[in-house]
Amino acid sequence: MAGSAVRRTRFAPSPTGLLHLGHAYAALVAEREASPGQFLLRIEDIDRDRCRAEYETAIHEDLAWLGLDWQRPVMRQSDRMAAYRDALARLAPYSYPCRCRRGDIRAALSAPQEGALPAGPDGLVYPGTCRGRSLSEAGPDDVIRLDVARAFDALGIDRIGFRDGAIMPGHDHVLTRDQFLDGIGDVILSRRGMGTSYHLAVVVDDAAQRITVVTRGKDLFDSSYIHVILQKLLQLPTPLYHHHRLIRDDAGKRLAKRDDARAIRHYREDGATPQDIRRMVGF
Ligand code: GLU
């Protein structure tokens, strides 16, 4: 359990490109927040179409070059499908199959609505068209969604929250049931052909790795509410959260993997030292 236990943090990149300055910062924050505990690495490679072995190798090389050290063996999500399947089965009482495609969702939302469509951490807030379908009707191309209202009812709660160490020390961030339904909605637990989703995999793995402090960018702030409700449904401990600032380019845009010029290894090839990288991200 979090609290008395040793602090354990993780850096959890996806091997879909070279690590950039934003990743360097995230990894350094995770390592700092672990101190004097344990810093772990987790390879988030559930999206087999986008992940590549050479990027995974590059992650190890770049982090080692930066001077980081982590516990071995390294967890890889592609090795964890059985654990996700078990968790999905445990969530069956609060889940349903959904066959809506993006166009269906957009059309359903546009009908009663004028102007901007409601969007949450995963894009459009699902309008619930397939809610009520039973898992026995699931087709091979369906996704599995969490029935959020049913989940809140089953838990007997009307709000969900977490403690964030970075934004407001010691302050609990809370979302009511209605805010969750309106702003996040019935999130996907298992994507088409994937057997899991980012949210489900992260929750299962943070618990398996006994992570006590989840450090991640502020862009994932709302996702943390999703993770807390999944932790409650799966009876897993809720870690502390530390949402850190994002590294932006000169135009103020958040760095993404496609900004290849900002890749750590390109700075390195240009003669930068690990200390230069640390300084560039404000360490
Ligand atoms: N894999 C996620 C990413 O690359 C971060 C993992 C997490 O903090 O949940 O942004």
UniProtKB/TrEMBL annotation:
Organism expressing this protein natively: Paracoccus benzoatiresistens
Sorted UniProt keywords: Aminoacyl-tRNA synthetase, ATP-binding, Ligase, Metal-binding, Nucleotide-binding, Protein biosynthesis, Zinc
UniProt keyword annotation of Protein biosynthesis present: yes
Keyword Transmembrane helix: no
Lineage, broadest ranks: Bacteria, Pseudomonadati, Pseudomonadota, Alphaproteobacteria, Rhodobacterales
Protein name (database record): tRNA glutamyl-Q(34) synthetase GluQRS
Record EC number: 6.1.1.-
EC category name: ligase
Matches recorded under Pfam families: tRNA-synt_1c
Family: Belongs to the class-I aminoacyl-tRNA synthetase family.
GO molecular function annotations of the record: ligase activity
Gene assigned in the entry: gluQRS
